UniProtKB/TrEMBL annotation:
The lineage of its organism: Bacteria, Bacillati, Cyanobacteriota, Cyanophyceae, Nostocales. CDD domains: ASS (cd01999). GO terms for cellular component: cytoplasm. NCBIfam families: argG, PRK00509.1. Pathway: Amino-acid biosynthesis; L-arginine biosynthesis; L-arginine from L-ornithine and carbamoyl phosphate: step 2/3. Keywords: Amino-acid biosynthesis, Arginine biosynthesis, ATP-binding, Cytoplasm, Ligase, Nucleotide-binding. Homotetramer. L-citrulline binds at residues 89, 125, 129, 177, 186, 262, 274. This is Argininosuccinate synthase. Residues 176-394 form the Arginosuccinate synthase C-terminal domain. ATP binds at residues 10-18, 38, 119. One of its GO terms (biological process) is argininosuccinate metabolic process.
Amino acid sequence: MGRAKKVVLAYSGGVDTSVCIPYLKQEWGVEEIITLAADLGQGDELEPIRAKALKSGASESLVMDVKDTFIKDYAFGAIQANALYENRYPLGTALARPLIAKILVEVAEKYGADAIAHGCTGKGNDQVRFDVSTAALKPDLKILAPAREWGMSREETIAYGERFGIPAPVKKSSPYSIDKNLLGRSIEAGVLEDPAMEPPEEIYEMTKAIADTPNEPEYIEIGFVRGIPTTINGEPKNPVELIETLNTTAGNHGIGRIDMIENRLVGIKSREIYESPAMIVLINAHRDLESLTLTADVTQYKRGIEQTYTQIVYNGLWYSPLKAALDAFIQKTQERVSGTVRLKLFKGNATIVGRRSENTLYTPDLATYGAEDQFDHKAAEGFIYVWGLPTRVWSQTGQ
């Protein structure tokens, strides 16, 4: 691992990233550390985080509000792609990492740093996402990952920090590892490491328990323009406001909880709990609107593209040639995906109960079984003969 003199550190204010500051200086000879905290809507008080970085030895502590960019340039593309990893997880954490890497690189260029650093361990997916994204954006920039190399337990890490004036957590540390942003929360570790154990209610924050949800359904309408959500109940919303509103509304009905055994990129299985109310609702609504506005062959072919897209985003390849090519395909498919989807929110379910679009391919005169039916039933016999001809020939000659 190459060493560096001036480093930009991805900073959250937690134990690991705080200890990274004295560690990089004392053990690796880094002279200057600039910390960067990205505001992705995690709800933290960012001013105390900024101040903590300076107290921990950073020469400069930056906080950047990138919520709008996060939704417009990262989340909306994933919605257009109906991106659900292993058909369940809407990539809330995975989508944040390439954005953080991008602003790390930009700050490194601005300040003349010769490396970026992060606090990821060697078991997770995020190290791959940071490292590969950085390599794609600026191949000659060094990447330092001290937590991947220092070999300290959490207790040893806290003790190391105390030696350099970094206070230990005031209250008893939560047994859970939690990552949060506008798109949701991921929760792991503690009792959740037993895949047979039901998650305790205390871990949830964005979603109500079913017993506590309203006893009457709530109906909402989500409007899309070219595959991008723009309105709720006919009212225009900016990207951040739209996500926040849906998180609150759907979460109030207990929608958006995911409990899954996930296949990590590094080859291990992990038990993951997610809360992602807005993304779950939006992806389901968007996919339904596509069924109304896309032809059968495009819809069916796009499903394979979506799976590939989801895999490469999960695997840290956001800035890859394949991702760019898939983006072009997906954007082409979205030209007609405009309209409104109506959903019923009730007891943990977001049920789609209606959809409409000016670009609809649903033709009532062809679909109806009533007197208005315009379908030529006589044409069906000839169609079936031609369609079934290969099967008939095979059957006649293959026995």
